[in-house]
Amino acid sequence: MPIEEYRKAQRLGLKEAKEAAARGEPAGLRVLPDHQERYVARRESMGVMEIPIELIAGTCNALRKDAFSPSFLPVLEEDSEFAEKWTSLCRAHVGEGIRDPIRAVEYLNRYYVVEGHKRVSVLRYFGAVSVPGHVTRLFPKPSEDPEVVAYYEFLDFYQMTGMNFLVLKQPGEYRDLLEAMGRPGSEPWSAEEIYQFRSFYYMFREACLRRDIQLRAVSEVFLTYVKIFGYRESKDKLGSQIAEELDKIDQEVRNRIERAGITLLVEDEVKAPLISLPSTGKLCAAFIHGGSASSSRWVYGHEYGRYSLEYEMKGQVCTFAYEDITTDEQAGEAIDDAVKRGADLIFTTTPKLLLASVKQAVLHPDVKILNCSLNTSHPTVRTYYPRLYEAKFIKGAIAGTMTPDGRIGYVADFPTYGSVASINAFAQGARLVNSNARVYLEWSNLRSGNGVERLHQAGILYIDDADRLTANTGAWMPGAHNLSLIQCRWGRIYESILRRVIAGGWKKDARGSSAINYWWGLRQGVVEVLCSRRIPTGTRRLADVLKDALKNRRLDPFYGVLLDQEGRVAYSEEDARLTADQILTMDWLSEYVVGRIPAYEEFNERAQEMVRLQGVERRGG
Predict the structure, then answer these.
(1) Does residue 95 have a pLDDT over 90?
(2) Are 379 and 513 in contact (CB under 8 A)?
(3) Residue 278 DSSP SS3
(4) Contact at 8 Å (CB) between 555 and 545?
């Protein structure tokens, strides 16, 4: 009986409204804001289209909002005229089906009903996937709001595919989806491609619902899934197989749905034991490098760290390494081989192998896999990286004492997480000792050439490049004297991580579904600043004093009121420290820096790859 269906729907609606109110959210429908001229650039009629039921967010008529729960279930009494019309529609739907399109307005991928509220309610109650409707699209005024940026990326995706049911809210995610599908271009999709994608997506949607994943999260979970398992490899899978694989990536899914993000662990409380006791068995660690130690300073440093690890933990650890692993396929083969050889931990030492590490961690849940990168929201793997900004602060102070005219050069490689903080910390150090200091910023991976040459042509004497502070005495390489150098002690990182596993600290570091990033620096003995004897004795002593103050937290590189290049206050809490997350994600340049963060398109291909993986701003290509 339709009246029984109304009672069931009403009970569900009242329950939903009560739960929403308890969370401090509206108990009824969301209403499209008035004064559209303030936020709408233009409008366009889209004709009749299928509106995904989960994207119907509310109403254009505030008088309608209290008749429904937030998801359009009825809440009015069963003896009302409203209930009578609802049951009549229910009878029509069961007998013939509701065919008349509703009228709706779409804004930022949310649909607001103009006419047809009860049709939406009945169809939603009976589990319809979509509702036909005459749609008017409101285009938001362009801005830097991430949701608006993501929406205009959606419009590009819609132009290619005509699909409106897959909604992603963060800039760059549609690009990530297309790359995961092997479709990075902008060519329109064929009818067959659209049909295959739609069929797979809705089968995936059903698998998500069987795993109690909320409808509004399905698109984000879909992106997570195809990045790990691949679209081409998955599009012919059965729903049961997809459901099983969703269980395997449960941590990744929960991180995404719960917005659990990242936990930065900046302290290292695991210490080497005073007495080395015999071990009942060795831990086995494999290292997978993106280059070779003979040609890459980066790989050489990690290999030196691996040998240091073996020396410091004699009898407790055995290690082996793979070099020149540059593709996901090669990484998969290397990790499979390492697992067969008994690896308990696997370190992939380049951010380029992050996604491959995640894929393999899902397939090998009993092996601990870590990737050398920063600020990555993948709880399946843990990440690690040296904290360099404190060492850069010391080098800035060294340069500030020595520059004859206040000008200091700084060459950065990529605008990745942590690198902008290093630039600003260097400038802060220079200003600490020299009120006239200015840092002239260039980049080493631009299409327009090497920034070092531009600094030389400007006559700047002291230049920080590739973690080395040099004094230019003439021709570039023959005449450059190294004055100060940052040393990363990778072995210290690896030793600490393995001791965590042995001592049980690995499990203690877990933070629910949050991804874990180890970010250690001077205080943890991971980073060191080495000074040449060419530096005056007083300056070397100053460097030691600063180092000691930083280690013992008596000094902070980012102290006082901080202004950006436009003179705006970037941070104003004089008595409070910036959090680790604020430092890591810093995307503004200090008032003492002359230069800029270039646009994505200005970097060469190598740099663009790093910016896509680790960039502080996810600019599109």
Answers:
(1) no
(2) yes
(3) coil
(4) no
How far out from the chain centre does Cα 174 lie? Answer: 14
- Distance between CA atoms of 167 and 171, rounded to whole angstroms? 12
In the prediction, which pLDDT does 275 show? 46
Separation between Cα atoms, residue 32 and residue 524, nearest integer Å: 52
pLDDT band at residue 273 under the 50/70/90 scheme? low
Instruction: Specify the residue for token string 């200005």.
Output: 602
Query: Which among 428, 453, 427 is positioned nearest to 440, based on CA atoms?
Result: 427
Q: How far apart are CA 498 and CA 501, in angstroms?
A: 5
What is the C-alpha to C-alpha distance for residues 547 and 517, in angstroms, rounded to an integer?
A: 24
Environment class of 589 (CB within 10 Å of its CB; exposed 0-12, middle 13-18, buried 19+): buried
The encoded tokens of residue 510 equal 């877990």
Determine phi and psi for 41, rounding to 5 degrees: -85, -40
**Roughly what angle, to the nearest 10 degrees, separates helices 239-248 and 250-257?**
80
Q: How far apart are CA 300 and CA 292, in angstroms?
A: 7
Q: How far apart are CA 285 and CA 501, in angstroms?
A: 12
- Residue 251 C-beta-side C-alpha neighbours within 13 Å: 21
Query: Where do the domains of the chain lie, and which CATH numbers do they carry?
Result: 1-141 (3.90.1530.10), 143-248 (no CATH), 265-386+491-520 (3.40.50.2300), 389-487+529-614 (3.40.50.2300)
Q: What is the predicted pLDDT for the residue at 225?
A: 96
At residue 97 the predicted structure's pLDDT band, cuts being 50, 70 and 90, is confident
Give the relative orientation of helices 218-229 and 173-180 as an angle to the nearest 10 degrees.
40
Structure tokens of 260? 């659990």
First to last CA, the chain: 57
Q: Structure pTM?
A: 0.87
What Rg, from alpha-carbon coordinates, does the chain have? Answer: 29
Q: Coil, strand or helix: which one is 570?
A: strand
Helix (H) or strand (E) holding 178: helix 173-180
DSSP letters spanning 489-539:
-HHHHHHHHHHHHHHTHHHHT--TT-EEEEEE-TTTTSEEEEE-TTS-HHH
DSSP characters over 59-95: ES-GGGGGGB-TTS-B-S-TTSHHHHHHHHHHHHHHH
**d(C-alpha 139, C-alpha 44), whole Å:** 8
